[in-house]
Amino acid sequence: MILVTLIACLLLTVGEALPQNPSGRYCEHTATSRNCWGEYDVDTDYSEVFPNTGVVREYWLTAQNTTLAPDGYERPMLVFNGTFPGPTIEAEWGDTLVIHVKNDMQHNG
Question: 20 to 30 A from 21, CA-CA: which of 15, 40, 75, 90?
Answer without folding.
Answer: 90
